[in-house]
Amino acid sequence: MLAAGLFYRESGPADAPVVLLLHGYPQSSFMWSVLMPAVAEAGWRAVAPDFAGYGDSEPDPPATWERHVESLERFRRELGIDSCVLVVHDWGGLIGLRWACEHPYAVRALVISSTGFFPNGKWNGMAKALREPGTGEQLMAGIDRDGFAAVMRQSSSGMSDEAIAEYWKGYADARRRGGQLEMYRSGDFSKLEAYDLAALGLPTLLLWGEDDAFAPVAGAHRFQRELPDTELVVVDGARHFVWEDAPAESAAALTGFLARVGDSAARSR
Predict the structure, then answer these.
(1) What's the CATH number for 2-268?
(2) pLDDT confidence band for 183 (50 / 70 / 90)
């Protein structure tokens, strides 16, 4: 299915409250495919787009952080999503949380995993290399299918052959590879000084892999300190790709949180 130029997956009743699932890098909406039936069974409508240039969404240059935020809002408007529980992972957090701050009326709760949203944040080594002119181009030119598969399997115990095939779509041509560099190079954390995530005052689930090397669990504890209404779940043995490393534990944490969000909304009416 397509909306606002973005391919998306959907599961659950069309009239149910929406859970909007935003994938990380270098993934696509496929990362949510195991989780979405559990969300639907819990009585919610799961909606998961591919960001432009990833999965089955065509590139839509410029591939900057700002452009992804703008395309997410176009997607929301075209689908008529008035309110959602926002679930984010990795770059989906940088895009989605920025969008949430700009459109707070459209978000009723947050689920944050394996990401950051801090003006003094630091990029990991791989991200620094992608942001470096020349070095990033060399890295992109040197990535082949087998090398990509090896890196993904080293990074996640739950990375299936099908998942790798889906995520490789983000490297299908020069436009998509160049878009990855453009996104990272637009990612100056100082831009976050204009945003106050805590001011949204939203109930928040923090879901993290215990052994996340790309977004260490210290970031989850910082979110817990800085946000007013949080619940932290750290999954033992899981790494950065926590939703794929521990799908059952992650689904249980999310559906339990959704039940509490739904009960709270019902009591407030």
Answers:
(1) 3.40.50.1820
(2) very high
